[in-house]
Structures are given as C-alpha cells and as structure tokens.
Amino acid sequence: MSVFRDDFLWGGACAANQFEGAWDVDGKGASVPDMCTNGSHSVPKWITTTIRPDRLYPSHEAIDFYHHYEEDIALFAEMGFKTFRTSINWTRIFPTGMETQPNEKGLEFYDRVFDCCKKHGIEPLVTISHYELPYALVEKYNGWASRELIELYMNYCKVIFERYKDKVKYWLTFNEINTGTMPLGALLNTGTVRGFEGSTADVPDNKQERFQALHHMFVASAEAIRYAHAHYPQFKMGCMICFITSYPMTCDPADVVATQKQMQILNWFSSDMHVRGEYPYYMKRYFAENDITILQQPEDAAILKEGTVDFYTFSYYMSNCVTTHKDAADIGGNISTGKKNPYLKASDWGWQIDPIGLRYTLNEIYDRYHIPLMVVENGLGAYDVKSEDGKIHDSYRIDYLRQHIEQMAEAVKDGVDLMGYTPWGCIDLVSASTGEMAKRYGFIYVNKFDDGTGDLSRERKDSFYWYKKVIASNGADLD
Questions:
Q1: 338, exposed or middle or buried, with CB in 10 Å at 0-12, 13-18, 19+?
Q2: Catalytic site includes residue 176
Q3: Fewer CB within 10 Å: N-end or C-end of the chain?
Q4: Catalytic residue among 20, 223, 377, 436
C-alpha cells in the first residue's frame, strides 16, 4: 500500500539549455550556456566571449528536444508521468533580454510543448530561469550585479505568465538560486562574468558582487511572486534550492559549529529569503566578517516580505562532511565539494550516495518551514554501456532511485508534506557542470556523444520500465 498522497506528482526534470538545442533557431539569442564549450570529469569546460569555430558547444544541439519534443513527451507519458519539470529559455522569448516585444516564434514553441503535455495528461512544472541568462545581459550589465535586471526579468515574467496562464499552474522563479553563494554561481546563475574567457575552474570571484547579485535575484523572485499572486491566483509559486546536506566529520564541537555555519550559508540563507521574506539574523555577522554591504532600495523589504513562496522544491543528489581537521580526505560533489564520508559509497563522478540523507533533509526542511515540499532533482549520473543485446541494463540507477524513494516514503511517514518527485535528466542530456553527454541520468538513452556525433535516436533503458511500474503503483512497487 502506498504512503504517498493520491495526487502525488511523479515525473521527471530537464532544463531548456541542457536538452533543447536549436540554440539560434527561430530568433533565439545566445545565453550563457551557449558560450560554454564541452568538458569532462577531469577537464573543465570553458566559457568564451565569442563563438569559436574550433570549439564544440554542446548546448547548441544538445539532444534537440526542440525538434523531438512530441516523441519525448510521448515517452514520458508512456512511463505515466503526472508532471514534467522543464524550463523556458529566456532568450527564446527575449533574445537579448532587453527587447520591448517578445519573440513570437519562441512563445509558439512553448505553446506546442505545453499543449503536448496537456494532451498526454501531464502537468508542466516550469522553471522561469534555469541557468540560461541572456549573454547580452552579461555583456551590458555584468548580469545580476546590476539592479536593471529586476525590471527585465519582470518583463519576461509578465509575458510568459499571461501567455501560459491557462497551461501552467506550477512555477519556480530561479533554479538552485543558492549556487549564487558559491564562486561557480557567477557562471551558472548570477552571470557576473562580463569579459571573462577561460576555464570554469578559474571564474573570478568577488564576494561583494556575488551577494549583491543574489539580492537582486531575491527581489526579482519576490516581485514575480507578488505579481503572480495578485494577477493569477490559480498559480502556485515555488523556490528551488540546491540542497548540499552536510554532516560533522567528527563529534568535535568545532566540527558541529562549522557544519551549522555551512548549512546556514549554503542552504538556509536562500530559502529563508524565499519562505520567510527577510534577511536571517546569522547573515549580519557573515556580511560584516567578509566586508559585504548589501545595497537596497527602500521598497525592497516590503517586496521580499510580500513575495514569499507557496511551496519549496530542491535538488538532492548527495551529502558530504565538514571538519576543522586538516587530515580529512576531499571528495567531489554537486557544485560544492566536501570531505569524504567513510560510511558512504560514491558514484563514478565522486558524488557520495546517501539515500538516508534525503529523509533527514526532508525532515529538516519541513521542520523549518511547514510548507509543501517537492524533490525536483535526484538521480545518478553514470556511464551507460550497451550490453550484447543492444540494451541498457542500468540496475545501478534503479538501485539508487529505489533507495531514495524508500527514504522519501519514510519521510512521509514522519509527517513531511511531500507533493512530488521529478528525478533529474529523465532523458539523457548535457551535464551543466561538465558539458558532457557521458554523464547520463535518463530513463531514456539518447544516441549522442561527447564529440558531438550521434543520430539522436531514443531508446528505453531498463529503468524506464521500472519507473513506469513505480508510478503505476504510486510508489508502492519498488522491486
């Protein structure tokens, strides 16, 4: 018998810049990912200020969802998806982000996508901005470092809200907004990389600029939510946090406090802003010790307070450890690195696999906020190799997802209000961190490779049939 609610939103998640392709088709402009080359687990991708003919830019074609969306959504429907988390490419609607009139062909594309979802009984969950800031806004304004982007973002929101008011109910304002607290967030989220060309490992970092840019994003998010609540009461507006679950490496009280501080800055700060609508007390000391002064307008406090979210969504892939001791081994991870946990195994990319950590995380978030939660990214990036029979037998992915769903069920039994689950990369796509195809997450295999070759054909993996069974049983049958 299932413990999940009857209207639980089972589905999958993708991002426009990682799977749409068609980067300059039908009037689309260049976004930050369109200026990023391919990389790998060991070689960082680059960002260039112009498109170089001798470089491969994986987002330019990606898996070409732009021309395969009907086939792909039909496959999602075959699995039984109740929801599909996707995003709108800002530069399809406003190619530079600064136009006064939207690009009609871009709007029409998403009309077709959402209509196709509706035909199959799938509810869209739309991220308004998912790591695809218009590159023209980087060149002119240095991204979100400039307050001018708030108005430009609102112009974009007003257009898509009105256009899709009868097609989209669930909206997320920014993807993993808390990556802006980290140096790599300058490339992924805040777009504060004006004039920079080079390895993503060498992106320049300025803490003052970083947190000022985040402030502008918080105000923009709150303004969009406030506007949506006033004009479209049927909308449900959410945030999206990259949750980096951290444990103290030892019982040394110094490790416990260091972990608490990391959790505050990386995770709680951004969601406190979204859910509580004000700067949390602990940021005052952090700002003072790091010489950060947030410049605000008189109206910002009211906007932040009035524009709080209806539900909370987050990504969860792994956990790591924090310590003040220098002898601990490092381990890789999603956006943020940490210390190796001796009790956990890791993926091919060094991400520690911690299903129980998801239960812990769900309880921590719900205890803090008491609003509905949704896990909108979770999954295993792995090398998928075809067997002699030509199939992808990805039992390792099934095991990963099964264990995490089991822990979600435990969290529901604990009393957490969990409204849905959309595993990441439900169809293979380009990795945001490395720009590679080899790191595959999907239930659906796409014949596309790191060198840009492949016929883009789609194939069902074993996990496709397993997840179909999971959805049909509302999470009761995980065998």
A1: buried
A2: yes
A3: N
A4: 377
